[in-house]
Specification:
The complex is a heterodimer of chains A (247) and B (308). By secondary structure, chain A is an all-alpha fold. Chain A is globular. In chain B, strand 12 and strand 13 form a beta hairpin. Classes of the chains: A mainly alpha (247), B alpha/beta (308).
């Protein structure tokens, strides 16, 4: 447990002191504030503020444009950088399991991504404080859904980061995986038969829009994000273990 | 303390290490010598638990690395060949992180970091970032890392690489001191004088196999059996060279005037040569075995490839 806690602290520290992370965070806040103010200008939103969580946390521009990209940009260094710098050998010969290495890196990225979404939540708190009639359940649910989706995308990004020491491949591969998770069900959504049903059951925008961002916590969606995240973490662990066999 | 039992490592059809067995006792320094690509780093990576062996077993302090990997690694300090620390971390931060990974916490961790820093002359560098250190100091950080958990076994892969001559001497003294404190040390090098100066026993690895294993004296004694012989005659060296061509057991390596260097196949041949020279009434000025060095043995075992 001490080793895990040391590893987690190190990973959080590495993210905290990396200048590029603050660039990402600044860009994220800027774009979110921009979208937020643009949405507030819409007459429909002004008439019905309950649309706001759905548009921001649900099936909106954030999900399609920013969310698949930012998590891999955060995770790209977690393993690829270790590989590139040659620090992986010292890490994997320390008395700590490969699973603990993967989990600590993932948890650090998830904790750090709270900061990203925290900024968006702050915007809601800001207008709520000024008397806007918001549906607290939808805001909280939307926040949770966005966080779970981010955790899934971070897990995919971590797996991509384990492929090699190439940071571009880590970021590009992670973003590609995330877009595939979003787009494949979207394209197959109207397909007849089983493919259509599978696409419907795995549609992340649908889960966020009609579930979390509407204030509904669906256990199926919770399990979907948890299982898929665990799958990517497992694949990351497999990659680390296989690196021992096939360097 | 460190045990390799018929260790083998294959990468597809390529066999990097084959059937390697040895032990390093507490307080002993074993030098791992071999040309580049001999399998030294592969062996150390197997012993560190980084790479699992294709066959055979490795144990640290009696703990099998395959069955009790974490427990074995807790008793191990490992300095990889290409040691690197995160460049943005200060030396003190890095060592604290590594100490935490090795199970140290709180006051004990702080004290131990200070202790190893002092031991390795890093106290003045603790606030410096790892990325700004010279190669020599990076190596020291790597060794400090390896020592943090007071491991009974130390594996050091090419620890002298990149060190200047003064640093080499200091580093060598530090390793000798660690051995005196009871650490079992296995270090690899392709630089023969480093091994010769430090190791009590030497393992010469060639093409993944153990070519020789023993103390320096044992290996040199073995090499002496086949060491060249120097014969100096006051007579005609060329005539003696011609006469020697008729002796099948001897090979002339070189002749400089009346001085001939000969290679025999064993000690018994030397006796017969001596008798043969006496019967010829050769006016000998010198008849002696050229004292072999570890380098001679190394050259003979690994062939034409010379140590760096």
């Amino acid at each position: 447990m001490r080793a895990f806690s040391a590893l987690l602290r190190r990973e959080v520290h590495a993210l905290l002191v990396a200048p590029y992370v603050y660039l990402l965070l600044g860009l994220w806040y800027l774009l979110n504030a921009l979208f937020f103010s643009l949405l507030l200008d819409y007459p429909q939103v002004q008439n019905d503020l309950s649309l706001l969580p759905q548009l921001l946390f649900g099936n909106g521009i954030l999900l399609w444009l920013l969310l698949p990209v930012f998590p891999p940009l955060l995770t790209l260094r977690l393993l690829a950088e270790e590989h590139r710098l040659g620090t992986l050998e010292a890490l994997l010969t320390a008395p700590v399991s490969d699973a603990a290495v993967v989990l600590a890196k993932y948890l650090a990225a998830c904790l750090f991504f709270l900061l990203f979404w925290g900024g968006v939540l702050f915007l809601f708190l800001l207008i709520g404080g000024h008397g806007a009639a918001l549906d607290a359940g939808a805001v909280a649910g939307g926040f949770l859904g966005a966080l779970l989706c981010s955790c899934l995308f971070l897990a995919a990004g971590l797996w991509a980061s384990s492929w090699s020491g190439n940071l571009v491949l880590a970021a590009g591969g992670g973003a590609g995986l995330n877009y595939a998770l979003l787009f494949l069900p979207h394209f197959l959504h109207d397909a007849p038969g089983a493919p259509g049903r599978v696409a419907h059951a795995t549609s992340i925008p649908l889960m966020l829009e009609s579930g979390f961002a509407a204030g509904l916590i669906d256990s199926y969606a919770l399990a979907y994000f948890a299982v898929l995240s665990a799958l990517f973490l497992f694949l990351t662990w497999v990659r680390l273990v296989s690196r021992r066999w096939v360097p | 303390m460190i045990r390799a039992d018929r260790l083998s490592k294959r990468f597809g059809p390529v066999s990097a290490v084959e059937d390697l067995s040895f032990e390093v006792a507490a307080g002993e320094i074993l030098g791992f010598l071999g040309p580049n690509g001999a399998g030294k780093s592969t062996t150390l990576r197997m012993l560190s638990g980084y790479w699992p062996p294709s066959s055979g077993a490795a144990a640290i302090a009696g703990l099998d690395l395959a069955q009790s990997s974490l427990a074995a690694r807790r008793r191990l300090g490992y300095l990889p060949e290409a040691f690197a620390a995160p460049p943005e971390l200060r030396v003190s931060e890095y060592l604290r992180f590594r100490a935490g990974l090795k199970g140290l916490a709180g006051r004990e961790r702080r004290a131990r970091v200070q202790e190893v820093a002092q031991q390795l002359g890093l106290t003045e560098r603790l606030r410096q970032t790892c990325g700004s250190l010279s190669k020599g100091y990076r190596q020291r950080v790597g060794l400090a890392d390896a020592l943090l958990n007071r491991p009974p076994a130390l594996l050091l892969d090419e620890p002298f690489t990149g060190l200047d001559p003064l640093q080499r001497v200091e580093f060598r003294d530090q390793l000798a001191q660690l051995a005196r404190e009871g650490h079992a040390i296995l270090f690899s090098s392709h630089v023969l004088p480093e091994v010769d100066a430090l190791a009590e026993r030497v393992l010469i690895l060639h093409r993944g196999r153990c070519a020789a294993l023993g103390s320096r004296a044992e290996l040199i004694q073995a090499a002496r059996e086949e060491a060249p012989l120097r014969v100096v005659t006051a007579g005609d060296g060329a005539a003696l060279e011609q006469a020697l061509l008729g002796l099948a057991a001897w090979r002339l390596l070189r002749r400089e005037g009346g001085a001939l260097t000969l290679q025999a196949q064993g000690a018994a041949e030397r006796q017969s040569l001596f008798q043969w020279l006496a019967q010829r009434r050769e006016p000998m000025l010198e008849f002696r075995v050229l004292e072999p060095s570890l380098e001679d043995l190394f050259r003979r075992l690994v062939g034409p490839q010379e140590p760096a």
